Amino acid sequence: MLDIKSLSVYPLYTHQTEEDIKMSVKIRKVGNSNTLTVPNSIKPMAKEYDVFQGRDGVIVFSPKRNNPFHNEDFIKTHDLTQKEEFGGPSVGKEILDD
After folding, report:
1. Does a structural domain hold residue 39?
2. Is 45 a domain residue?
3. 36 pLDDT band (50/70/90 cuts)?
C-alpha cells in the first residue's frame, strides 16, 4: 500500500540543459543566516521569494506574489459572494435567485 504521508510532491517547471544538471552550491554561514548562492546561469525573475522546505529536505524558492484575498482594497471593491453554480438544493448560505 502506498503511504501518502511519506511523499512530498513539488510541481516544478524547469528547462534544463546538460550544464544545468551539473550545478551545485554549498550553504555558507553569513551572520546568523545560512546562504545559498544562485548560479549565474539562473536568471531570477523576481526580487523577493518565499522559501519552503519539504520533509525530504528539498528547498523550494517561489517568487513572492500578493494574495488578493488578503488585500483589503481588493476585498472592498469586489463582491465575493457566491451563487449556486450547479442545480440542486442549496447546502449552505447560497444566494437564491428569485
Report:
1. yes
2. yes
3. very high
Helix (H) or strand (E) holding 21: helix 18-21
CA proximity to 37, closest of 24, 18, 54, 46: 24
> DSSP E strands: which ranges in 1-98?
28-30, 33-35, 49-53, 59-63
Domain assignment of residue 66, yes or no:
yes
Whole-number Å distance between alpha carbons of 74 and 67: 10
CB 73 within 8 A of CB 67: no
Q: What is the reported pTM?
A: 0.49
Classify residue 96: in a domain, yes or no. no
Query: By three-state DSSP, how is residue 91 classified?
Result: coil
* Structural domain span for residue 53: 24-77
- Number of folded domains that form the chain: 1
DSSP 83: B
In angstroms, the first-to-last Cα distance of the chain is 51
Residue 77 parent element (H or E): helix 72-77
